[in-house]
Amino acid sequence: MAQEMYETLDYDVLIIGAGGAGLRAAVEASEGTGLKVGVVTKSLLGKAHTVMAEGGAAASFGNLDAPDGWETHFYDTMRSGHFINNYRTVEIFAKEAPDRVLELESWGAVFDRTPEGRIMQRPFGAHTFRRLCHIGDHTGLELIRTMQYKAIHTNIDVFQEVTMTKMLVQNGRVVGAFGYFRADGRFVLFRARAIVLATGGWGRIYKVTSNSWESTGDGAALAFRAGADLMDMEMVQFHPTGMVWPPGVRGLLVTEGVRGEGGLLRNSEGERFMKTYDPERMELSSRDVVARSIFREVQAGRGTPHGGAWLDISHKGADYVKKKLPGMYEQFLTLADLDITKQPFEVAPTCHYTMGGLRVDAETCATNIAGLFAAGEVACGLHGANRLGGNSLSDLLVFGRRAGMGARDYAKATGQHAAIDESELRQEMDRVLEPFHRQGSVNPYHVHERLQELMTNYAGIMRSGDTLQEGLDKLLELKDEARSMSIGGSRVYNPGWHAVFDVENMLLLSEGIIRSALERKESRGAHWRTDFPDELPEWQTVNFVESFDGQTIRLRREPVNPMPDYLAQLFTYGKAPGLAKSEAGKESQV
Amino acid sequence: MSDEFKLMVWRGDASGGAEVEYHVPAETGMVVLDALHYIEHNLAPDLAVRWNCKAAHCGSCSAEVNGEPKLLCKTRMDQYVGQTVTVRPMKTFPIIKDLVTDVSWNYKVAKEVPLLAPTAPAPFNMQQIDVDRIQEFHRCIECFLCQDTCHVLRDHAGQNKYFGPRYMIKIAEFEMHPMDGVDRVPLLAHEGGVGMCNVTKCCTEVCPQHIRITDNAIIPLKERVADRYYDPIKILLRRLGGKKDDVSEPKTHAVT
Ligand SMILES: Cc1cc2nc3c(=O)[nH]c(=O)nc-3n(C[C@H](O)[C@H](O)[C@H](O)COP(=O)(O)OP(=O)(O)OC[C@H]3O[C@@H](n4cnc5c(N)ncnc54)[C@H](O)[C@@H]3O)c2cc1C
Ligand code: SF4
Ligand code: SF4
Ligand code: FES
Question: Which of A251, A280, A499, B238 is the most exposed place for a label (fewest CB within 10 A)?
Answer without folding.
Answer: A280
